[in-house]
Design goal:
Blueprint (H helix, E strand, L loop, with lengths): L9 H20 L5 H18 L4 H34 L3 H10 L1
Helix pairs in contact: 1-2
Length: 104
Amino acid sequence: MSTMKKGPTFTQALVVFLVIVAVIIFGLVVMKVDAHVLLILGTFIAAIASLKLGYEWKDLEAAMCNSVCRAMSAMFIFILIGMVVGAWISRNSTRFNLLWIRNY
């Protein structure tokens, strides 16, 4: 981030959070919209709230890239676990592996 910006107050953060949660719940339950679209809309709402607080787009972009970079190692582990479970399922050995884990 280029300069130190003032963060939101508790009420501002709570209002933005509740608006995002309300949009997601309304979209899922009432409108039957795909969750991915609603998550993108929630990101858009959070970006607008941050821009109103005085953050610039490059600050938001840098924060998003930093968050994705920090989460990549965990995502890689989940991908590897999925590959192992997929290999078990394709060999029809899932039941044997679960029984072995339970008895171990």
